[in-house]
Every structure is written in structure tokens, then in C-alpha cells.
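Subject: sequence -> C-alpha cells, single chain

Hey, anyone have a minute? Need the predicted structure for the following. Not urgent.
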Amino acid sequence: MRAALEELTRALEREHERAAYRESVIDRLHEENQQLRRGERESLLDPIRAALYRVHDMAYREAGRWAEPKRPAASRAAPLFAAIADEIADALARTGVERYDVEPGELYDPAWHRAVGSTPVSDQLLDGTVVEGRTKGFARDDHAVRRADVIIRRFVEGER
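Reply:
Had a minute. Here:
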């Protein structure tokens, strides 16, 4: 009886050691998994960071030029701001978000447009069409993640 009890105790100790080893493997694998996830999240941000570095450098360089006694011509501002907007749109594109334009005459679609104003119109056929886009929209996987701000036409009877 004593020998059987000692054998059972040794078997239990071996099983306890195996369970402790399995726990240590699970803990190590969990920590490795967490490190990989952190690394993946960080690597997802790399393209955004690179684009923001470029935008930062561009804005900083231009700020220096505009601070000089002989400032650049005001006509340089529009292309500069357009270049900054393009850099930001490129960064967003690297995350799967694409910029889209709104054309005058398009039919208003609340899934893609956000009406921020209206213009009265007497032609009922023009009711609900876009007069102008105020902002660009951004889409991912065929749906808007940020709708474009638009001015739309609204039919008003007797309007001239």
C-alpha cells in the first residue's frame, strides 16, 4: 500500500511539473502574441507617419519662407495648400480610404453627400441636385466614411 501511495505521489508530482511547464509555454506564447500585435499596430501607422513627416516638413519649410522679409507671392499659397491636401489624401489612401469628388448636377445622395446649404430653384427637375461640392468625400469599400459637404438645389414654386 505504501509503495502504491509513493508511486501515486511521484506521478502526481510529474503531472504537476508538466502542468507548470504547459502554463509557462502558454504564458510565453501569450506574451509573444501581444508583442506581435503591438508590432503590427505600429507597422500599420508607419505609412501615416511617413506622410505626416512630409506634410510637417513642407509646412515648416514654407513657414520659414513666409517669415522672411521678402515673402513669397500670395499666388504660391494655393498650390502649397493643394499639395498639403494631396499628401494627406495619399496618406489616407494607404489606409484604404480614397478621396472622391462631387460634380455639380449630381443627384443628392445622403449616403455620399451631406447637405450644408441649399439654393432655391424654380425648375422642379433640378430639385435635389448638387450645386457645388464644398469638401471632398472619403470612401472605403464602396461606402462613404466621410460624406462630401454639398450645396443642393431646392425647388421653390414661383422662384426666379
